[in-house]
């Protein structure tokens, strides 16, 4: 049994129900919109966030109709944010295929993202649950705030890990935390359980983003983005920040400022990547990621042992060991 099969096994039936609702939500009589949606659907990924919602709802109670609507809403909001991010970042590729803005144009891409966002709101509205709606609404704020914070950080003259954690909380950890929180809410969990579930999602999300940031130093095209892609966009992540705050090399610091300013050549970026790797940046980031993995495991440790808990442990392993 593969890792993904093991993760999905306890919720296979409910995941199929989620997929049907998700598919039915993305319909329109507009041919151009449907072409764009079909393109997005080709790279839907493994639906890790809806899987998390379903697993945690089952852990704290049972999967209800509200759970499914919540999972659909969150996945649509996440997808909308990716479509918009690709416009902001001027990215030509998403998950190994052309981005919407590359295949069509920025105008179409922004409007498709708006449609996905509006559809997310329709789906969460179907829950008729103010607490769940509140979680999704605040998540939308966090995602936008995180993107703006990341953009403003490009001109920051400091190599701040605090700013880095603020960005990844709002852009990634907040999404996983929201998935966990709505799961517990939809299952009717206690206030204490909702808090613990939210912590679990936050820690898991931080692991996920640090792993993604480590991928930027990989020379493998299989990860779905070119090596140094974040740095081409002026972004310095945890491996680089660690090394920059320890190095005495003014040349490397000056190169980092050139990267942040979008002035570095591809050759210079590869030189910088080599320096970060040689000076322990990847090892440091991996150690931080694993510490958050351990924090997430501590959250669910007191819960009874069952196939859901085993699936969640496998989920964490998958996040930190994945190859793309």
Describe the structure in your own words.
By secondary structure, the protein is mainly alpha-helical. The protein has a single domain (3-321), classed as Farnesyl Diphosphate Synthase. Helices cover 74% and strands 1% of the residues. The chain has helices at residues 3-8, 12-25, 31-42, 48-60, 65-89, 100-103, 106-125, 130-153, 161-186, 191-215, 229-232, 238-244, 250-260, 266-278, 281-300, 307-321; strands at 93-94, 97-98. It has a two-stranded antiparallel sheet. Helix 4 packs across helix 9 (161-186). It starts with a helix and ends with a helix.
List the main descriptive attributes of the protein structure presented here.
globular, two-stranded antiparallel ribbon, 16 helices, Farnesyl Diphosphate Synthase, mainly alpha, 324 residues
Compile the SSE list and pairings.
Elements: H1 3-8, H2 12-25, H3 31-42, H4 48-60, H5 65-89, E1 93-94, E2 97-98, H6 100-103, H7 106-125, H8 130-153, H9 161-186, H10 191-215, H11 229-232, H12 238-244, H13 250-260, H14 266-278, H15 281-300, H16 307-321
Antiparallel strand pairs: 1-2
Helix pairs in contact: 2-5, 4-5, 4-9, 4-16, 5-7, 5-8, 5-9, 8-9, 9-10, 10-15, 10-16, 12-15, 13-14, 15-16
Can you give me a brief rundown of this structure?
This protein is mostly helical. Helices cover 74% and strands 1% of the residues. The protein has a single domain, classed as Orthogonal Bundle (Farnesyl Diphosphate Synthase).
